[in-house]
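Form P-L/3: holo structure prediction, ligand pyridoxal-5'-phosphate.
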Amino acid sequence: MSCTATARSAEAAETAWQAEYHDALMPVFGTPQRLLVRGQGSHVWDADGNRYLDLLSGIAVNALGHAHPAIVEAVTEQISTLGHISNFFASRPQIEAASEVLALAKAPEGSTVFFSNSGAEANEAALKITRRTGRSKIVCVEGSFHGRTMGALALTSKAAYRAPFEPGVPGVVHVPFGDEAALRAAVDSDTAAVFFEPVQGESGVRRHPQGYLTAAREATSAVGALLVLDEVQTGVGRTGAWFAFQHPEIGEGVSPDVITLAKGLGGGMPIGATVAFGADVTKLLQAGQHGSTFSGNPLATAAALAVLRTLGQEGLVDRAAQLGASARDALTGLDEVSEVTGAGLLLGLELSDGQAKAVAAAALEAGYIVNPVTETRLRLAPPLIVTEDELLGFVRALPGIVADAAAQTASAEGAS
Ligand SMILES: *Cc1c(COP(=O)(O)O)cnc(C)c1O
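OUTPUT (holo model):
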């Protein structure tokens, strides 16, 4: 029996920690693949001492990788000084993190930030802003993912996620992906907002066709509706621009009314943000109309500030664009990859033979964490501190990994 076959049969039987996991945690996530104990830079280690190159970074979260000194210092100092207050009080990190987000977004005068704890919550706040237009129709895009709370879920297109929880929040329509005419036709005088991701993450790292953001801006402006961009996954340098709406190809120079952030913003500390662009959007939410105990929590905002400043000081956003381009070039030369999607360090790899799950499993065995985002596509969202050697090392290893996956699938089929 080969090593990999041993590993596979070991995987089939539940390990002791998996049994403990299932005894204690709600079964919503299925079975985790490894018990991780430590991270450093672009790598994590499991409880058996195996090292993995983390090309997913906790789903586009760990922008500075693991245990980055800037975050460790910021969080350690903050928790030792002032960990949590309430919104009866203010803190410097809260004010500075909000100001930094607004400056990086080049948001106009009168723009403001609401901090929350997750992407779903950032979208909930955005949804409440849209309701304050006095309208309730929201136009979303098929393939969208906006989170799992009831409002964010209503915006999410996958019926399997929504169906068990009906009735959901009413008023949401989903237009076919990539269809500019359908988008324009759906936006009318009842429309509060058009709400979508500048690059769809969960449906496979999909970019809208050229002209789509421009069309969305035109259609919303024409009827006085808001344009809300969910940048939970694409924001904070991920696409090689600070925010995807600023990316020269993706953003098309469009100014949104609201953007939402989370994932990369805290570099591992839970935080979300809803940014209202301009005084007119800001004033839609009045005092008392929204809130959260943890909103602007000093610890989370200190981490966000450390992330934003470190990305800026180390030029990691431009570097994400360059590294993404070289990874794309290298991947485009492989027979195993039929298409590379995305931008910067958010990449989708369409596999010539499909089988994304089997390839991700073989990659894990080979020491790489990648995500089978669809049946046929892998998602890479490495830390923005990943080195070119690390990233291109994976590209060089990929043909062998794909071959391993095919061999394992064949032997599993032979055995059954
Ligand atoms: C992950 C994600 C969310 C949800 O964020 P959570 O922190 O999981 O609530 C929302 N929108 C997009 C685009 C995402 O990728």
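COMMENT: The first helix runs from residue 3 to 12.
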